[in-house]
Design goal:
This protein is α/β, with parallel strands linked by helices. It has 21 helices and 30 strands. A seven-stranded mixed β-sheet has the order 5-4-17-16-18-19-20, sandwiched between helices. The chain has a five-stranded parallel β-sheet with strand order 7-6-8-11-12, with helices on both faces. α5 packs across α7, α8 packs across α9 and α11 packs across α12. The radius of gyration is 24 Å and the shape is globular. The protein binds 5'-O-[(S)-butoxy(hydroxy)phosphoryl]adenosine. 5'-O-[(S)-butoxy(hydroxy)phosphoryl]adenosine binds next to α12, β20, β24 and β25.
Amino acid sequence: MANGDNVARTGAIEALLVEQRRFPPPPEFREQARVKDRTPWEEAERDFQAFWAKHAEAELHWFRKWDQVLEWNAPWAKWFIGGQLNVCYNCVDRHAQSWRRTKAAIVWEGEPGDSRVLTYQDLHREVQRFANVLKSLGVQRGDRVSIYMGMVPELPIAMLACARIGAPHSVVFGGFSSDALRDRIQDAGAKLLITQDGAWRRGSIVPLKQLADRALAECPTVEKVVVLRRIGATAGAQMVEGRDFWWDELMADAAPTCPAEALDSEHPLYILYTSGTTGKPKGILHTTGGYLLGVHLTSKWVFDLKDEDYYWCTADIGWVTGHSYIVYGPLSNGATSVMYEGAPDWPEKDRYWQIVEKYRINVLYTSPTFIRTAMKWGTEWPAKHDLSSLRLLGTVGEPINPEAWMWYHEHIGHGRCPIVDTWWQTETGMIMITPLPGVVTTKPGSATIPFPGVQAEVVDEEGNPCPPNAGGFLVLTRPWPAMLRTFWGDPDRYVQTYWSRFPGRYFTGDGARKDEDGYFWITGRVDDVVNVAGHRLSNIEIESTLVAHPAVAEAAVIGRSDPVKGQAISAFVVLKAGFRPSEQLRDELREWVADKISPIARPSDIFFTADLPKTRSAKIMRRLLRDIAEGRVLGDTTTLTDPAVLEEIKRQYEETE
Ligand code: WT7
């Protein structure tokens, strides 16, 4: 494993700085909470399959009940075999047919200040019409639909319409480049693309249709394109006759009713691409019954959702957090899910707090990066607003440092709100390690304990459980309903990536330690994945992109720790003969990466060097570069072909600092 020594070291440092503060659930919170005691854990430990089955029966609507709860041929899982259901029916129809029909399902705030409320009845109407639009464009059960949109209500409408007719969707984050979109459409083999004219971002326009056109030039499987009008201008892009259709025109002609299809519990629901340790993004496949149960129950218990709550998850639906905890989990519960289109500092740095005040948000779920950014902006911004409606706070995406946790607790929660630090991944589909806020005493910086029914362990290189507080690798030791089923089109890589390091157990790629109370402390990725502001990027993908630039011979990319973003990208670049380092070239390379992958991947710093440290098997020793970038004593250098290369980089680096 690449950075085993790194884990051990982090573990040792962490153990010295043991966090002593404890926050038991406030009694008034506990009294009202959905889960008040340890019963769910006890039930799940007696029989985890019976536990999940009990809630699948009580919480979800099935057209046909399953014959078998779980078939586990490690690493292949099937949940609720023989059962038939529809995710869209569970998220929309059953509420639209109940007293909730006039309840707000989606409350949407546009970046320019416009807003919309869709009740469950409204959502039911829109989703049925759009499902008919999909059918009229030739989309059938099993066909893949790619979606490249910003945070507009039509995005969940499109997703739910796909789920309704059994067409797996593949949402591509609207901040991705046309190259990234092209790769994802090609891998999924999508038949249809749904996009919009443009998206608002800090008052300017992201020309989504134009970017989509560039991608589509190399995507022969896409037959038709639906374009939503959001900004009212196509930013120069043309509608292609016979291929492109306006959303509103298709909807005007669509039939009003479309039944939700009874789908097999293992029917593919969606593919979502995430970065792995190689350059090629992995298409994570989630299916129907198990996924819905996982996101339903975690939404209900972790966020303690009540019918009167206004719940707001600030993530983008282009990431799994938005799929599971803006769309499927909350809507399955009949909750009110708030959605915001834009940036947290537009028009001012209090936009989030203004939204909390405007809608009287009760439950807020956001990222450590945002919290650290808000800390940097200063307490005067939240202090300007009435945040008294908040009763529960959550975080996700990266480790939260205790200082940021305390700031969130004091300046946003005013000491009143429990904080749920939720650990999970695109692959897990659902929250896996988390407090239940009415039961579990929290410790700032720890995601605490596994959700009922989930089993996790920290193991050493050999796969043996680590003693308390020793750093090791985080593994999951039991199948769970929302787990990924495979990589789209690449089952071998699925086995290789997660199940070969510790056979029979799922390897998360994260380092962790477990303390004497059984609380998990996640220390971050131990593989070639960087986590910038909660966004997962592959070192190798960024390196390949740099090397594709005409001036670059070789590149090594590392994530160095950053006080706000968690990690920032540093690139070490070797130029081809005939090119000279310059400020201009540095800027050009940074923009090159932003343009080819996404602005998220733009390196914070680029360092020109004559050579890179390599092992005898020609592997770049990224961890040594990280030691340099973070000003640490160099780790083991004995496997290097030429240690002098490293000394030279270190000397130059320190000179330029
Ligand atoms: C990686 C997964 C799951 C939604 C967002 C990211 C890191 C996630 C936590 C947390 C420490 C966390 C891990 C994980 N991570 N949540 N609460 N504490 N680290 O999804 O892009 O699939 O990334 O994010 O490193 O492996 P993702």
